[in-house]
Design a protein that fits this description.
258 residues, single chain, alpha+beta
Length: 258
């Protein structure tokens, strides 16, 4: 990659922290992202399985859908049952094309007065265009960061800051605050371990990350271990295991069909 191409890479709100922690940075989905820290991928993988790993996933797309008819409009684009999704609950689903191929996989959370979506970094612009093309009112939340705290100790760690996090059901959402910094918490995880996603204002991301990393169970984890963890758990990655030429059935994702 040339210097000009590197300069064009976007940076997440945690970029300076990654560099400070000695991360090896690589281009990923148009962003300069940490692939590993000095401990190495295997150590990061094992640490997540045994304790808790903190991942920067701010490159992913966070989107808010508003307007009347948003539920049925979104449901027309995915095979998942969005209409039955109760407030405070979330669902994994897929955008599909006319042939049943997968355009992207995503998380949808019913936030009551709107739907909150998290989509893949490599597809977020296409996803927004796809939804707007079908009449949805889409707001891209570019001023927010997203962290993932994953592993068997994640619940105990997060509960020190947000006590209600400990009793959150799987695939649910909660409004909380970490040392006074507002956060949207979800409990899904994409590592095969219990885990949380923490959406915060970009300006608060570094402070939240430092607070979590100061806990004895938590270590920073890069894209390398994120990939090995999801592979070990048998979870798909868009662009590698699934794409628009893969149907939901071929991807063994029939359980996502509403």
């Amino acid at each position: 990659m040339s210097e000009a191409q590197y300069a064009d890479l976007k940076k997440t709100p945690l970029h300076a922290l990654h560099v400070e922690l000695g991360a090896r940075m690589v281009p990923f989905a148009g962003y300069d992202m940490p692939v590993q820290y000095p401990a190495g991928i295997l150590t990061e993988h094992r640490h997540t399985r045994e304790k808790a790993g903190l991942f920067d996933v701010s490159h992913m797309g966070q989107v808010r859908l508003t307007g009347e008819g948003r539920v049925l409009a979104l449901e027309s684009l995915v095979p998942g049952d969005i209409a039955a999704l109760k407030p405070g609950r979330m669902r994994y689903t897929l955008f599909t094309n006319e042939a049943g191929g997968i355009l992207d996989d995503l998380m949808v959370t019913n936030r009551g007065d709107h739907l909150f979506l998290v989509v893949n970094a490599s597809r977020k612009h296409e996803d927004v265009a796809h939804m707007e093309g079908h009449g949805l009112a889409v707001e891209s939340l570019d001023d927010r960061a997203l962290l993932a705290l994953q592993g068997p100790a994640a619940s105990a760690v997060l509960a020190r800051f947000v006590p209600e996090a400990a009793t959150m059901p799987f695939m649910s959402a909660l409004d909380g605050a970490i040392k006074g910094m507002p956060a949207i918490l979800t409990r899904s995880g994409y590592t095969g371990e219990d885990g949380y996603e923490i959406s915060v204002a970009a300006q608060d991301a570094e402070a939240v990350a430092r607070l979590l990393l100061a806990e004895p169970e938590v270590a920073p984890v890069g894209l390398g271990a994120r990939d090995s963890l999801r592979l070990e758990a048998g979870l798909c990655l868009y662009g590698h295991d699934i794409d628009e030429n893969t149907t939901v059935i071929e991807a063994d994702l029939a359980w996502t069909l509403g």
